[in-house]
Specification:
Blueprint lengths: L2 H20 L3 H8 L3 H8 L7 H11 L3 H4 L17 E5 L5 E8 L5 E8 L4 E4 L7 E8 L2 E5 L2 E5 L4 E5 L4 E4 L6 E8 L25
């Protein structure tokens, strides 16, 4: 089985598992994540390899890190992820890529990424749940960071943090490759409250919508 096939199988298995643990129906997870019911079914049946954006939306809606959704091996209190065990989630023909180095769910999902963007390329991200914080450190090149309607230049050696509940994007408008490290902290998702035994009607499992 290829690495992509293993990743697809792991995603199918874990999406179904975490949806069950959260008590989300297919429809409620679709509503929370913005991913269609049909796409969720295809993912759970390992019939498709979703985009990074779709995977991020599902992880956010479930309140877990992408590493958990992709079945990262769990270790003891100290966990080492070797370079060849990091998960590359996006790459372009020109040579840009994003790699998640490590993630945890101990106090709400946290993820650590490394980014490489060649000149002229960039990626966009949909809003994350309210309370999500991103921190980044540019080690080479200049980053053009767009958050909502604001555009910011982050040069090599500089760091930035922002609330990621707005659309945001990362671009390399410079002439040399961009390298940066990115950390994402996502607030935990509360499990749905079970219906009282005397409840007269059905209770929605997805709770209030953001």
């Amino acid at each position: 089985m290829s690495d992509l096939e293993q990743l697809t199988q792991a995603l199918a298995r874990n999406l179904k598992r975490w949806r069950g643990e959260r008590g989300f129906t297919l429809d409620s997870l679709a509503t929370r994540s913005g991913v269609s019911r049909g796409m969720i079914i295809q993912i759970e049946q390992a019939r498709t390899n979703p985009s990074v954006g779709t995977t991020v939306k599902l992880a956010d809606a479930l309140g877990i890190s992408i590493s958990t959704l992709l079945d990262y091996d769990r270790g003891p209190q100290v966990r080492i992820v070797l370079p060849d065990q990091a998960v590359r989630l996006w790459s372009s023909e020109a040579g840009s890529s994003t790699t998640m180095l490590i993630g945890t769910d101990e106090r709400g999902p946290m993820e650590l990424w490394t980014w490489h963007l060649v000149p002229g390329e960039g990626t966009e991200s949909a809003p994350h749940p309210s309370g999500t914080i991103e921190m980044l450190h540019v080690t080479a090149g200049d980053l053009t960071l767009v958050v909502g309607e604001g555009e910011f230049r982050v040069p090599a050696g500089a760091a930035a943090t922002f609330e990621a509940n707005l659309p945001h994007s990362y671009r390399n408008d410079g002439s040399v490759p961009l390298e940066m490290t990115l950390a994402v902290s996502i607030p935990p998702v509360s499990a749905p409250v079970p219906a009282p035994a005397h409840a007269a009607g059905p209770v929605r499992a997805d709770g209030p919508q953001r």
